[in-house]
Amino acid sequence: MSGEISPTGKPSGPGSPPELRASHADRDRVVEVLRVAAGDGRLTADELDERLEAALSARTLSELTVLTADLPSASAGAGAKDVVRIEQVHSGPVRREGRWVVPRRMELATTFCEVTLDLTEAVITHDVLRIDVAMTGKNLTLVTRPGIVVDTDGLQLVHSRVDHRQDRADPGTPVALRVELVGQKAFGRVVVRPGKRTFLQWLLRRPVSRTPGY
After folding, report:
1. What is the pLDDT of residues 15-25, one digit of tens each?
2. What domain count does the chain have?
């Protein structure tokens, strides 16, 4: 036999070193680089999903290397700020929904402009999202899913109130994202609610009716 075929499909003979196997720590490092890159806007949500799947199934270091070859390292981007600012005055509603990438920080500077941040399908790249609020009038709505908690203790309310509707999530659900609201909300409301249930979910949550006499 002149040579063997490595798991990557490349021939490996006596003169070529074998492919180095990737460890769990190697995969974790690449996953972190990909998530930071997505949070910085370097990868789309679809690209992030594709590369994460490839990283988690990679068997060798060379397979991992190609996934981050066009991205800065985690150490280079660790100190970079990732701020999304929304500034609107008497305009139409602002919505972030679908598979949008959640940044590290958001600044909401709006006057009489409705703002909705729907996190039910969002791509979460960091553990904490800080939202600096400077809003007057209209409502700020956050739509959550299990694993997302919202902290409004740092928010100053002026002729405003918080309407926090929590979903009955499994107590064992790990926290994937902590949203911290700080700043000031004047007039209007801050609404925190779970996403709408599908018809099947509604059926499963309905109380079972009992036949009289049983």
Report:
1. 545 678 888 88
2. 2
